[in-house]
TrEMBL record:
Family listed: Belongs to the binding-protein-dependent transport system permease family. LivHM subfamily.
Any one Gene Ontology cellular component term annotated for this protein: plasma membrane
Protein name per Swiss-Prot or TrEMBL: Inner-membrane translocator
Membrane as UniProt keyword: yes
Location within or outside the cell: Cell membrane
GO molecular function annotations of the record: transmembrane transporter activity
Length: 301
């Protein structure tokens, strides 16, 4: 692999990893607070992308402000993803809180299927794209290769800002400490006066906004079609399994590893593109069965 090809693969891998990390971050929060694998989270990614594309299409003829168009991505993600996330928790998952995990998984899968049909009803099956924002941000040339600033700088910067912001929230705010308390021991947190139900709803809202933000950031780079949410959620499961459940820093590292591995496969062995994330996951789990960043636990007999 020559240097230019390596550079292309690296930039593509980092930008894809950034998007993958955002949706994995939301899943990690939900797994930590509820212990639920939320399959419906993939639909929030898709809703974020479709909503951002609709908003950008409306703004493009009426505004020449690139910052305003960029801000619309965050608005779409916060409103659509946050609202749908809280609605899912309040109207559905709260009623299955202490039920069998398999039943919880089936319920989230059913919600995913319903939301997928809602997407088709609203936006149809025609590919949706909003590439004008990426074009407006200009390009940068590195070693003779031209990259869009949107992909090279903006998307990774947003992912890092989300990581830093969430770490600050969890460690230095009352709401964040309540989330951490519920993650560690829900019953004790409730006994101490923490409203676990409220924390759960806010967590779902935050996770939904993060997942939708990933979709909103994706739509200037790729066309959205029905089924894209399913592809991203399955890959996100590989990220979480590789990192270890509830590991935020681990999710960042695992997303980067999987994103780079997938990009390298695209440029060298295209037939391995689809399976590369899962090959990485299996390789890690063979050595670290609980994930890269999970602490080892003693087996009790």
């Amino acid at each position: 692999m020559d240097f230019n090809l390596l550079l292309l693969a690296s930039v593509d891998g980092v930008s894809y990893a950034s998007l993958l990390f955002l949706i994995s971050l939301g899943l990690t929060l939900i797994c930590g607070v509820f212990g639920v694998i939320n399959v419906a989270h993939g639909s929030l990614y898709a809703f974020g992308g479709y909503s951002a594309a609709t908003l950008l299409a409306w703004l493009a003829p009426h505004s020449t402000s690139t910052p305003l168009m960029a801000a619309s991505l965050f608005v779409a993600a916060a409103l659509i993803g946050g609202s749908l996330g809280m609605l899912l928790e309040r109207g559905l998952l709260r009623h299955f809180q202490d039920r069998d995990p398999v039943l919880q998984l089936l319920v989230t899968f059913a919600a995913f299927m319903v939301l997928e049909d809602v997407q088709r009803m609203i936006w149809g099956a025609t590919p949706v794209n909003a590439g004008e924002l990426a074009a407006r941000m200009g390009t940068t040339e590195l070693a003779g290769v031209t990259f869009m600033n949107y992909q090279l700088l903006f998307v990774p910067a947003v992912a890092l800002a989300a990581y830093a912001g969430l770490q600050f929230l969890l460690k230095h705010s009352i709401a964040g400490r309540q989330i951490v308390a519920v993650i560690h021991h829900r019953e004790v947190a409730t006994a101490l006066g923490i409203n676990a139900a409220r924390v759960g709803m806010l967590t779902f809202g935050l996770a939904g906004a993060l997942g939708a933000l990933g979709g909103a950031l994706s739509v200037p780079l790729t066309s959205f079609v029905p089924g894209l949410g399913a592809e991203m959620i399955v890959t996100s499961f590989a990220v979480i399994a590789t990192a270890g459940l509830g590991q935020i820093t681990g999710a960042l590292v695992a997303a980067l590893l999987i994103g780079l591995a997938r990009a390298m496969a695209v440029y060298t062995f295209p037939e391995l593109e689809v399976v590369m994330p899962y090959l990485m996951m299996v390789a890690v789990l063979l050595v670290r069965p609980h994930g890269l960043f999970s602490a080892a636990t003693a087996r009790r007999i």
